């Protein structure tokens, strides 16, 4: 029998099993088999399958948050940063099609403790702040209209980017990269600063 060295090892095994079987069809026994251990060994590290799901989805979402924060910290132009952000979101949705919507629609999950809900809220706040930073960079550079409301714009962007999770699996011509490029073209036409936006109004709230 293999020895479990860390909880991360359990989370990684659960992620593989959930991806293969789906959460509803996956059993704790399947995860134990993936690890090569007895089922009882898992309960030293996690309390339930639902707890494992939260750890897996939080890890997956944290990865895309960190990726976006790296985009924000980069030296690319605002439009290129927005392109990379949308592409990262599309890849996240494509790779984690079942789990990804919970971060945007499952804000009152009764299975979460109060501490877990606070942790999730802080993580999602980091995520939204990364998007807002890209917009603020665009305004500062004169590429994005100062009349936009960053909060409303980010919520609109996220609604657009998460919607493919409810669509049929991507087919020819609908890769994450292709989808990101199309969405960027649609979004940028509404964000870009130009003669019509000059003096159009006061900047929206941050």
Write the layout of secondary structure elements.
Layout (H helix, E strand, L loop, with lengths): L6 H15 L6 H8 L3 H4 L6 H25 L4 H18 L6 H4 L8 H28 L8 H13 L13 H16 L15
How would you explain this protein's 3D organization?
The protein has 206 residues and is mostly helical. Helix content is 64%, strand content 0%. It is built from 9 helices and no strands. The chain has helices at residues 7-21, 28-35, 39-42, 49-73, 78-95, 102-105, 114-141, 150-162, 176-191. Residues 195-203 have low confidence and may be disordered.
Keywords:
single chain; 206 residues; mainly alpha; 9 helices; elongated
Summary of the model, kept short:
By secondary structure, the protein is an all-alpha fold. It has helices spanning 7-21, 28-35, 39-42, 49-73, 78-95, 102-105, 114-141, 150-162, 176-191.
How big a fraction of the residues is strand? Answer: under 5%
Query: Which of globular, elongated, flat, extended, rod-shaped describes the shape?
Result: elongated
**Total number of helical segments?**
9
What is the H/E order?
HHHHHHHHH
Enumerate the spans where pLDDT stays under 50 for 5 or more consecutive residues.
195-203
How many beta-strand elements? 0
Question: Helix- and strand-based class?
Answer: mainly alpha
DSSP helix fraction: 55-70%
> What Rg is obtained from the alpha carbons, in whole angstroms?
20 Å
């Amino acid at each position: 029998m293999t020895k479990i060295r860390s909880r991360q090892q359990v989370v990684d095994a659960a992620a593989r099993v959930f991806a293969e079987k789906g959460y509803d069809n996956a059993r704790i026994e399947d995860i134990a088999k993936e690890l090569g251990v007895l089922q009882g060994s898992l309960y030293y590290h996690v309390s339930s399958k639902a707890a494992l799901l939260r750890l897996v989805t939080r890890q997956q979402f944290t990865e895309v948050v960190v990726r976006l924060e790296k985009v924000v910290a980069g030296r690319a132009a605002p439009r290129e940063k927005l392109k990379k952000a949308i592409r990262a979101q599309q890849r996240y949705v494509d790779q984690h099609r079942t789990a990804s919507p919970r971060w945007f629609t499952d804000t009152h999950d009764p299975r979460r403790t109060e501490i877990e809900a606070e942790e999730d809220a802080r993580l999602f706040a980091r995520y939204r702040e990364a998007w807002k930073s890209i917009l603020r960079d665009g305004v500062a550079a004169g590429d994005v209209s100062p009349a936009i409301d960053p909060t409303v714009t980010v919520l609109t962007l996220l609604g657009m980017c998460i919607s493919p999770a409810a669509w049929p699996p991507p087919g020819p011509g609908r890769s994450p990269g292709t989808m990101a490029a199309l969405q960027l073209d649609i979004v940028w036409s509404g964000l870009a600063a130009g003669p019509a936006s000059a003096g159009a109004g006061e900047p929206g709230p941050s």
